């Protein structure tokens, strides 16, 4: 058995007193070094900074990723020369963001987009987050507005349309030459200058015309691309039906080959009003024979220039017309035209049209000075609401010696035109 240490007796008072704790060891001189103290302070500050940065990162990410207040997609315009604070105010006013402007600015800096914000019109999606909003502006994908220029307008009419469109800026310095603009659907951002629009349309027309000219029919009786545009502009004004363009073009091409006057009503109108495009009233009988550089009832061959801006389809149809011998066409009463090779067949088609008009419009009083329906069937007489009238003294034209005896209405009364419906109803160009 091990021996226990002897227990020294203590008084009760001594037993109640705590035992003395030994003093702590003396701090080393190294621990009291000022460099160590500073180092410890720096480490402590770094740890606190890392904790703060982590919290800020988490909070900032939450702000950037939280869905925004937009209830529906919305287009907002960021003006030119707008600063970051201005952009934040615009977005807040339009309901795209609901954060303090300074938070928006902080987000811009956090995403390193301070110098990449671009003005323009932007489409923001529903509930777009702050990150997505800033990303849209940085990408610069502005809203593109579709602008459709119909075929067959004059350059003056096209410029008027551009002037009325509020998405464009500036003014057109001068009216472009007729036939140099390509009718098409274009897309432009808001703020595009009107001169830039004109330049783009001219470039498109040059490109398309060059492509079509290279693929033209080898026996086409036009010598230059400009003449092709001139003839296509007449075809464009004569029919609005896509499936008739090549056949209408064939009529005019056949007439050019046989040296027959084109006798197209739209050329009369252009000679009277020029770039205004529409006459606003029926053509008078006296105007059919009124001398004009564009009046193809008076001049031989093509007019000196286009009478409108034809579209791609009319250029294609004119460059590669249908292989027919047609020399005449007349409205068929259904919105289209009836084509014939001879004057006699043409007269029969005219008689059919008259019968249809008498059947449906025999109660309409005809205007006092109404010429026969105009060349090329620019409009269906049946659709105009006027009663037909037989032309006075209509007769078959004499044979054209240059074409080997083919019927040539060039010097005949208006009843012999290629597209003339034998009706007294004047045609107002559409």
From TrEMBL:
It is a single-pass membrane protein. Its EC number is 4.2.2.29. Residues 16-30 have a biased composition (Basic and acidic residues). Residues 371-421 have a biased composition (Low complexity). Pfam families: YceG. It is found in: Cell inner membrane. Residues 1-30, 357-430 are annotated as: Disordered. GO terms for biological process: cell wall organization; peptidoglycan biosynthetic process. GO terms for molecular function: lytic endotransglycosylase activity. The chain crosses the membrane at residues 35-59. Functions as a peptidoglycan terminase that cleaves nascent peptidoglycan strands endolytically to terminate their elongation. HAMAP family: MltG (MF_02065). PANTHER family: ENDOLYTIC MUREIN TRANSGLYCOSYLASE. Belongs to the transglycosylase MltG family. This is Endolytic murein transglycosylase. It comes from Bradyrhizobium oligotrophicum S58. The lineage of its organism: Bacteria, Pseudomonadati, Pseudomonadota, Alphaproteobacteria, Hyphomicrobiales.
